[in-house]
Amino acid sequence: MPPLLEVENLQVHFETEDGLVKAVDGVSYSVDSGQTFGIVGESGSGKSVSSLTVMGLTRARNARISGSVRFNGKDLLGASEDEMRQIRGNDIAMIFQDPLSSLHPFYKVGAQIAETVRSHRDVTKAQAWDRAVEMLSLVGIPEPRRRADAYPHEFSGGMRQRAMIAMALANDPKLLIADEPTTALDVTVQAQILELIERLQSEFDTAVVVITHDLGVVAEMADEIAVMYAGRIVEKADTDTIFAAPEHPYTWGLLSSIPRLDSPRGEELVPIGGRPPSLINLPTGCSFHPRCPYVREAHKRTEPKLEPVPGRPGHEVACLLPSETRRKLWAELRQGIKPGDARSDVMEEKAL
Amino acid sequence: MAGYIARRLVWMAFLLFVITLLTFIIFSVLPAGDPAVARAGRQPSAELIATIREQLGLDKSKPTQFLNYIGDILPFVGGNGVYFGFSYQNNTEVLPEILERMPVTIFLTAGAVILWLAIGIPIGVLSAVKTGSWMDRLAMGIALVFISAPVYFLGLVVLYLFDNKIGIWKLLPGNSAYLEAGSIGEKAAALFLPWCVLAAAFAAIYARFLRGNLIDTLQEDYIRTARAKGLSERRVVFRHGVRAAITPIVTLLGLDIGLLLGGAILTETVFNIPGIGRYAYNAITVSDLPVIQGTVLFGAFFIVLMSLIVDILYAFIDPRVRY
Q: Is A327 on the interface with B (CB under 8 A)?
């Protein structure tokens, strides 16, 4: 069976007065029905732009899009606006970071959900409203019939995101794209929303693409994770591998910057030094090299490709270090040896 | 809500009082000439002037004059109901004169409002949706011309071009046509050019304002949500975009209607339309204080009233607003 969503060599470039912004630069991934796919990266890594492009919502006139996006075998990049309109909100739905600004302030929550239903289903207003109430109850909003009559500003943050989810799932989509679904929420509410998405996903058998800067969000729910940096995927593997045996120094950086319960007391978190690069003037060679503690001279000239890790099917990484070195470095990191003190790193440098 | 309206009404009364006081002070300070002398005719005797002065209450001190005026305006105070005094100039009561001119001014305002909304809103929406297109640039360019051209200039140009007596193309009733018009149809025809002239500047302002608002609104997250829901672009723009972008227009519209109901002085003067604005203009030229006071107070009253109405309307337009 072909995958539900297949993105191949997707490029989204924006022509600006300052130069070409390569927001997404050759991204490929696929998501199967019912699967959860996590896309992780810092802001500006291209994770949101790539999924908005999948939805056909990259509307800027200066956008240059190439590559291919197939959904259920259908080419989405070549689809007409009208075809895309029929897919959006119906087959592919999306929820966003800030549920307050994402809901229209002037319309009742129930009306906004009913509108989604009515734009894709031939139902009466009353039926659409009933569906809205049903969805609100499904996402765990108490007294859904009364609350459907309320405006977004009368909801709490978590309730609003529940309402957004209700709206997204109202037409029983095959794919849900969740763009930073918990970033604007309290920590306690975050967990509830993630649980809700997981529960509904298994109930509706929806595939989910979760976009986040927070590995913790995808740790529990994703089957597979892609780590994005500067518009490209630098590492892709199943979730267990990403956490247990990551091979890209950027992924290590992301992992070392999350607090862990099992780490020794007093151990400091290690942030990734520097900032994400400008997408107009990408660093030469490996675009992560200015921030990479293990950089070699050659890495400043050669561009790494996303290649399979030897002996690990499904694990791909774009790093110029030899796989053995990467494994040794990761093992040392896990023992608490800081990047600068890494022995294997020094040994290999000498060998060169 | 009721408490809010009550507070606003008190505030409104206070504002109108201050405006009346300011008008009075400005008039008293300015060297406007002695109204009694103006009334008395050519080479009056000193006794006549003194008599007139006493009749008009001008022999009293300035504060007393002001208090008398306030007493006159307020019903149940001063003993003569609602009374705006006598015109110094032509010996008529001010209030009936204003009320008589009210319908023309309302007619002029209503027609212009409908016209400028009918022109300004579609152009604003189109320009916002097609930002940067040749149509947008052309519309905004023309809008700038109309905003920059003063009404009296535009009015004269229009008369020069289209007046059916003096115009190059004798197409439409022009200057003074309203005075001769009998039926409502003739009156509307006589007001057509003034409507266009008045609406031109406002339509231009509204189009630019709505365009700016709508461009901002279309960047909002909830517009992205509306698109992600698979709504048609038309529905996204109108039901989600324009609905939100148009609310500030309501404020603008309320104040503009208030302003014009107080008299479109320039338009009424250029086209010689016998409205409140024309009345005020005439009074200003001959320093007729009671008429100036009366028309200013009327104008101010409409503006504060409309701003109150707008604020009350907001509670219905924007569900987030509560009083």
A: no
